[in-house]
């Protein structure tokens, strides 16, 4: 008898059973002692929801619009690298599932399928593009132009990676490169017209540089380079949130990279209220890290997030069942958000407010 996968944790177990153990460790793991990885999930468990009763609220409305992109639920797909390690179709499968779920996929710069091919595989999908600013700004600009041309609707600039996080499991497993024939396709030299003459040669792939020299000046350069809205991902300090507003970003994305960069950064949901206060409603605030249940989504929105993103849950769906697996994970989250709101007595995600959340 095939086991029914009823929760994201079930999907993780199914993914673990299918994946090469070194690849599972890469996806699941974090930096250092994984204090932050554990904190992200544990923080949600410490928050309680205090429902209202007898409100006659009916079936709740859970769609939101973010930077002009309409979503059927307030849950985006966070940028994650190397989807072809989880499924041969890789990011193409993820994008098709995202199109069906009517949400947003943030395509990682470290995707194993070129952003043009992801867009072509899922014409209905809303795609945003995640960028690690490369010190060679001409190369950075070429990548941004590819994302624009592929139809991406926003640029998500990851700023928590002035160096790569140290992940001890990857060191133990000797996992430091993609298998033969798999590449970060957005890192090819050129304009993304990657096989113009059809000879199969798509040009050399550059390594991703994570540089401690990247600064606010680069955000200003990007601001002048593109008309796409810029979302700053990896902000955890309220002072940086205020600076980001001075530099003209369109949204802030509170993230500790799922505990994969600096270990011991506090749980994102605990940092969220201070960032929301610092931003004062000037721009939308997104958050990710440890979201595994609809109730987690509801708590984050009640504390001021405009929407949340999920990283590993999508990988677990992809590894367990390809496109259908991702679709099921997104559908489960959607149903859980709607169910949690119904039980809270609310008519809409817009009615969520901090008074619904109690620290247990
Ligand atoms: C396997 C993996 C790869 C990731 N790759 C990227 C990436 O390429 N760019 C990026 O900005 N964040 C990346 N992240 C971080 C995610 O965008 C996100 O912040 C994190 O996964 C959220 O935590 P969660 O996995 O608990 O949902 C990655 C995370 C994982 C687990
Ligand atoms: C050298 C490739 C780096 C890919 C970065 C992916 C990532 O952010 C992660 O957390 O892993």
UniProtKB/TrEMBL annotation:
SUPFAM superfamilies: FMN-linked oxidoreductases. Residues 1-360 form the FMN hydroxy acid dehydrogenase domain. It comes from the Bacteria. Its cofactor is FMN. Transmembrane segments: none annotated. Coiled coil: none annotated. InterPro entries: Aldolase_TIM, Alpha-hydoxy_acid_DH_FMN, FMN-dep_DH, FMN_HAD, FMN_hydac_DH_AS. Keywords: Flavoprotein, FMN, Oxidoreductase. PANTHER family: 2-HYDROXYACID OXIDASE 1 (PTHR10578:SF107), S -2-HYDROXY-ACID OXIDASE-RELATED (PTHR10578). Belongs to the FMN-dependent alpha-hydroxy acid dehydrogenase family. This is Alpha-hydroxy-acid oxidizing protein. The lineage of its organism: Bacteria, Bacillati, Actinomycetota, Actinomycetes, Streptosporangiales.
